């Protein structure tokens, strides 16, 4: 490390001819420093005067704001998880999906969860209507269900309490159900999906119940079960929103 040192000492004027030495006139002593000494740099600036600063190229480490860091972590997890679910809904619901489902429903539900744990975020979408203007529960009393997982098989028993009550304007006389499953791994990524479509049910028939089984993918850790209903006339689907409904019935964990 380099430092330049300039020393100007006090001067004394002594007269040898006088018997008693006079006190010398002294000037202010001054030590001028320039350069870098250890972690300090001495500067003589015309603009700012003499001062000491840290060496150039030295930076203080910024302190991490843990609140912001946690919020950023939660936001990333919410966005990635919501996207996986939203992409699946688009694939099974098509244009029936509510246009603002992403922002007003999926993200809104997950942001209200006071947690950054994946199971809690997934659980927040249970009961989600895929189109809030045409909810499934406007057509029927929601069915009772029992869901069990034995090894690699998911078993579903669903009992309906009555036939759906379609608007008379659509002239429906029949309907069918579709059961959709989305499987998600421990990182929140989609592993696989599955679906079973029932046969047509006539409104004058006996109210149906179903016992279904699905094969669980190896890496699946969580599942989302969707229930869809489509009304028809003479067993032909009616291509209109009032004839349709879809809902996330249950979200659960696969214990392997």
What's the topology here?
Layout: E1 3-8, E2 30-37, E3 40-45, E4 49-53, H1 66-93, H2 101-111, H3 118-123, E5 144-150, E6 153-159, E7 174-184, E8 190-197, E9 201-202, E10 209-215, E11 222-233, E12 236-237, E13 244-253
Antiparallel strand pairs: 1-2, 2-3, 3-4, 5-6, 6-10, 7-8, 7-9, 7-11, 11-12, 11-13
Give a description of the structure:
The chain has 256 residues and is an alpha+beta fold. The chain is built from three helices and 13 strands. The chain has helices at residues 66-93, 101-111, 118-123; strands spanning 3-8, 30-37, 40-45, 49-53, 144-150, 153-159, 174-184, 190-197, 201-202, 209-215, 222-233, 236-237, 244-253. Strands 7, 8, 9, 11, 12 and 13 form a six-stranded antiparallel sheet that branches. The longest helix is centred in the first third of the chain and has 28 residues, at 66-93.
This entry's quaternary arrangement is: single chain
Distance between the termini: 65 Å
Can you count the beta strands?
A: 13
Structural class: alpha+beta
Q: Order of SSEs, N→C?
A: EEEEHHHEEEEEEEEE
